[in-house]
Design brief:
Length: 104
Amino acid sequence: MNSQILEADQDDLVGAEVSPDVAVQAGVADGDVAALVSPRGRFEVRVRVDPTLRPDIVVVPKGGWHKHGRNMNVLIEPRFTAGTGSAFNQNFVRLEAVGRPAPR
């Protein structure tokens, strides 16, 4: 088992922490539902605005379960580092408003 988040704690969308600038640019506010989009996939998140973050990053916790649709691996390419096995845990994404509320 490689999850860092208990199944019982996965009853809502994964939180994505973004700077106020990123939230304004995407047209979302704290608590809104948005999608992180990469060339490989799309992943719905609940926005958490954090004024301490830089405007060029999105922070999402690692370890959500695939069966609950809460694993960020849908956004990244399945590749490894030269360290022969270290997972690649960063990727360029775009934050988009989804235009509908998600159940809590």
